[in-house]
Design a protein that fits this description.
The structure holds two protein chains of two kinds. Chain A has three domains: about 110 residues, Orthogonal Bundle (Butyryl-Coa Dehydrogenase, subunit A, domain 1); about 110 residues, Beta Barrel (Butyryl-CoA Dehydrogenase, subunit A, domain 2), CATH 2.40.110; about 130 residues, Butyryl-CoA Dehydrogenase, subunit A, domain 3, CATH 1.20.140.10. In chain A, the strands form two sheets. Chain A has a four-stranded mixed beta sheet with strand order 1-4-5-8, covered by helices on one side. A four-stranded antiparallel beta sheet of chain A has the order 2-3-7-6, with no helix packed on it. Chain A is about 45% helix and about 15% strand. In chain A, helix 1 runs parallel beside helix 3, helix 9 runs antiparallel to helix 10 and helix 10 packs across helix 12. Chain A contains twelve helices and eight strands. Chain A is an alpha+beta fold. By secondary structure, chain B is an alpha+beta fold. Chain B has a domain of about 160 residues: Butyryl-CoA Dehydrogenase, subunit A, domain 3. Helix content of chain B is about 50%, strand content about 15%. Chain B has a four-stranded mixed beta sheet with strand order 1-5-6-10, covered by helices on one side. In chain B, strands 2-3-9 form a three-stranded antiparallel beta sheet, with no helix packed on it. Chain B has a three-stranded antiparallel beta sheet with strand order 4-8-7, with no helix packed on it. In chain B, a hairpin with a 2-residue loop joins strand 11 and strand 12. The radius of gyration of chain B is 20 Å and the shape is globular. The N terminus of chain B is likely disordered. At the A-B interface, helix 8, helix 9, helix 10 and helix 12 of A face helix 7, helix 8, helix 9, helix 11 and helix 12 of B.
Chain lengths: ~375, ~375
């Protein structure tokens, strides 16, 4: 039987030491009205907040100082991140760049791309989106059809991407496109490029979500020209690069803290004297959350040692997003009042409303529950 | 699920030794003979003697007090191994009871030790040079077969720990769902010498529900992890071997997703139990145990359900060994406080502290002992 590689050590002192600094920053932000916790989450796009976080030294923590970063460990970044999420800070404008595009460029990008882009990411002044899904390929990434064709000293891209979060307001996409044949395992012939959304040949069409918010987009490439300097990783190496980052993408605290502020508001709305039902269900959720923090912290330590625990990361995301989906469903039974999108002065009702409308995305984004369960089943030796 | 290597040599040796001992002794026939659900439950004396000789009962007692001095995270793996093997003996109770007694300043004793659940409400009063007990202990694991009981008794000065040697035969023997003895003993008028009464260790003095219930809930949580590992391993084997509609069950996506769900519950339960083990000996232990018993208890029900579904009718027979794990899970989730009771305790503490206090509490909890 497969042995999972979760461990049970606490985070190192260096990482814990960063906690006080980020808490002080967040307390000052709250005092100054920098964000309203029950209305924002880590996906909320707020470039001003991201610049302030960058100026305070909380973005690009793992990037070396020569590229404008802070040269800290992944575990320091982990602590900073979980504190931001628990506070409900609006991290959307730097999230993708900080979590995955920046690290990908650092490891696999050209020197020119590193010099041009990393310092801006670390300043919280450069935002990224992910260009993976296509109209014909959602969960099945190997079916990517957007194609880049060699043209002199660069490439010409044609095709389209969909569900591209924030494409209408980010600076760049890290796009996965086809440069060759898929091969027998279907994983060949894919390459990543940094796409400048301000350049000619790219158009962005909004897709409103179910509550009318504009975060998603469809992105069309029409003879979009990109230079070799913007290629990330070798030609045809895209699949390996994309899957390499999945363990980071799937195991972080963003997979179980998306609606943490609703849990906080629920507890405050219940008050200090819960009835039995309220106490038991609140306690059940808190026990689930404590276990998830243990699992996720454990994967973070493995990643920090260079181990890539793909199955363990998938377990964190599957269990974690299941928890996130359950929070609003439990909350509405504990505090049975109607949710409202604009219940001024009643943060619980607002948080319940916004969370209920966002919740379906929790188990879709970054790999659906069904894809994750397939990954876990493979890890269990069933596939 | 067990990591492949132990954290250090002594721990590895102890865990290997326990594994070899269990696999040599614990046969289906032995488990059947010890199952009180289908006849009188035997006390497997040769197995206990082998365990006693190995020193495993004192695994968690510090070396300075005559024990092996394992870290609690390693002792937790030993207790998980007991749960995985469906060990029909109170070794987890003895390991935890001996360590609790040592933490209270008591001298290490010999033989099997059991824990008297909190609900017994045993009283203690001075009598001559020592003390006298009053009350009836119920639901005591193997209470009629052990050499000593650890009792949490209430007296004029509050609660204390009592180590009652030679507790005598059970007045009433009942069984949990797995057929494990859960005995009643009459303690009225039992005399105990002064050195068999100790104050509660400071880190357990504030534990809601009591020191013994907290320690008992911890070992049940750890043992549930082991029993879930056994049930899931059996399900994976079955799904791989059993053919239906011309292919192994494992190839059906519905089966894959059910087992992935069970694995998620097991992983979360393991992480929660890890928190409790890491907190042993510190003031965060009671809260960490509450989290562990809550999460393991919730997982136990789901994992047992899924594993039975995957095994089909075969898993519902006495012949198949799945019930050795699942009947224990259904009992252990309720012993030393059912998960809903521990969830209530967490919930009341969290609500009393307010929403803003939750996050710092969770961060401290993950930081381990302290």
């Amino acid at each position: 039987m497969h042995s999972f590689r979760f461990t049970a050590e606490p985070l190192p002192a260096e990482a814990e030491a960063a906690r006080e600094a980020v808490r002080a920053f967040l307390a000052a932000e709250l005092a100054a009205g920098g964000f309203v916790p029950h209305r924002t989450t880590w996906t909320t796009f707020d470039p001003d907040f991201s610049r302030r976080a960058g100026a305070a030294g909380f973005v690009g923590l793992t990037v070396p100082t020569e590229y404008g970063g802070h040269g800290r460990s992944g575990l320091v970044r982990y602590v900073v991140t979980e504190e931001m999420l628990a506070a409900g800070a609006p991290c959307g404008a730097h999230w993708i760049a900080d979590r995955q595009s920046g690290p990908q460029i650092l490891r696999h990008g050209t020197e020119a791309a590193k010099r041009a882009i990393l310092p801006r990411i670390c300043a919280g002044d450069c935002s990224f989106g992910i260009g993976m899904s296509e109209p014909g390929s959602g969960s099945d990434l190997a079916a990517v059809r957007t194609r880049a064709v060699r043209d002199g000293d660069g490439w010409v891209i044609n095709g389209s991407k969909i569900w591209t979060t924030n494409a209408h307001r980010v600076d760049y996409l890290l796009a996965l496109v086809r440069t060759g044949d898929p091969g027998p395992d279907r994983h060949g012939g894919l390459t990543q490029f940094i796409v400048d959304l301000a350049a000619p040949g790219v158009t962005v069409r909004p897709i409103l979500d179910l509550s009318g918010h504009h975060e998603f987009n469809e992105v069309f490439f029409s003879d979009y020209r990109v230079s070799d300097a913007m290629m990330v990783g070798a030609e045809g190496a895209g699949w390996g690069l994309v899957t390499e980052e999945l363990a980071f993408e799937r195991s972080g605290p963003d997979r179980f803290l998306s609606d943490y502020r609703l849990l906080v508001e629920t507890i405050d709305r219940i008050g200090p004297e819960p009835d039995r039902f309220q106490a038991a269900e609140t306690g059940r959720l808190v026990a689930q959350l404590a276990a998830l923090m243990g699992m996720s912290g454990s994967v973070a330590r493995l990643l920090d040692r260079g181990i890539v625990p793909g199955v363990e990361a998938a377990l964190v995301k599957d269990v974690g997003t299941g928890f996130e989906r359950e929070v609003p469903e439990v909350a509405r039974r504990l505090v049975p009042v109607e949710p409202s999108l604009n219940a001024q002065g009643e943060p619980y009702r607002e948080a319940l409303a916004h969370t209920t409308l966002r919740a379906p995305s929790f188990t879709l984004r970054g790999g659906t529950r069904e894809v994750l369960r397939g990954v876990i089943a493979r890890g269990l030796g069933l596939r | 699920m067990e990591p492949e290597t132990a954290p250090d040599d002594v721990a590895g040796i102890v865990l290997d030794q326990a594994g070899r001992l269990f696999s040599a002794h614990i046969t289906p026939a032995l488990l059947a003979a010890c199952d009180g659900a289908s006849g009188p439950a035997a006390w497997p004396a040769p197995l206990w003697e082998a365990i006693d000789e190995s020193g495993l009962p004192l695994a968690l007692v510090p070396e300075a007090r005559g024990g092996i001095g394992l870290d609690a995270t390693v002792a937790a793996r030993l207790i998980r191994a007991c749960g995985r093997a469906a060990l029909p003996l109170p070794l987890p109770e003895t390991i935890a009871g001996a360590a609790l007694w040592a933490a209270a300043g008591g001298e290490a004793g010999a033989g099997a030790l059991s824990l008297v659940p909190a609900a017994a409400g045993v009283r203690i009063a001075p009598s001559g040079d020592g003390f006298s007990l009053d009350g009836r202990a119920a639901g005591v694991p193997w209470g009629g077969g052990v050499s000593a009981l650890l009792v949490e008794a209430s007296g004029a000065d509050g609660r204390c720990l009592v180590r009652l040697e030679a507790p005598g035969p059970a007045t009433d023997t009942r069984h949990n769902l797995a057929g494990e003895p859960r005995d009643a003993l009459d303690l009225a008028g039992r005399a105990v010498p002064a050195d068999a009464v100790r104050p509660l260790p400071g880190w357990l003095a504030g534990a809601e529900g009591g020191a013994i219930e907290t320690v008992g809930a911890w070992i049940r949580a750890e043992a549930m992890v082991g029993a879930m590992e056994r049930a899931l391993a059996s399900s994976l084997d079955h799904a791989t071997e059993r053919q239906q509609f011309g292919r192994p069950l494992a190839k059906f996506q519905a089966i894959q997703h059910m087992l992935a769900d069970a694995a998620g519950h097991l992983a979360a339960a393991t992480a929660a139990a890890d928190l409790a083990a890491a907190a042993w000996g510190g003031t965060r232990f009671p809260l960490a145990v509450a989290v562990a018993k809550s999460r393991c208890g919730e997982a136990a029900g789901r994992v047992a359900e899924i594993c039975h579904q995957v095994h089909g009718a075969m898993g519902f027979t006495q012949e198949h060994g799945l019930h050795r794990a699942t009947r224990r899970l259904w009992s252990w989730r309720d012993e030393f406080g059912p998960d809903v009771l521990w969830q209530e305790r967490i919930g009341r503490a969290v609500c009393a502290g307010g929403g803003a206090a939750l996050w710092p509490m969770l961060v401290r909890l993950r930081a381990g002992a302290g």
